[in-house]
Specification:
Layout lengths: L1 H5 L7 H13 L3 E6 L7 E6 L1 H9 L1
Antiparallel strand pairs: 1-2
């Protein structure tokens, strides 16, 4: 989906996305929620924090 929606604006890879999400999480800008799924790998859902919203607004 990412490639479809943003392909005209930004070129990236899944590896780069997860590296960036890890960095944002380490900085407290997003939080990761692990969703347990039966018969499938667990899903990581990321939520922006208040600190992240503030940083985004200042950007």
């Amino acid at each position: 989906m990412f490639e479809t929606v943003f392909k005209h604006f930004y070129k990236t890879s899944y590896g780069m996305i997860y590296l960036t999400l890890r960095r944002l999480s380490n900085e407290g800008l997003v939080e990761k929620e692990v969703v347990i799924q039966e018969g499938k790998p667990n899903k990581n859902v990321y939520h922006i924090t208040e600190k992240g919203k503030k940083a985004f607004a200042e950007y």
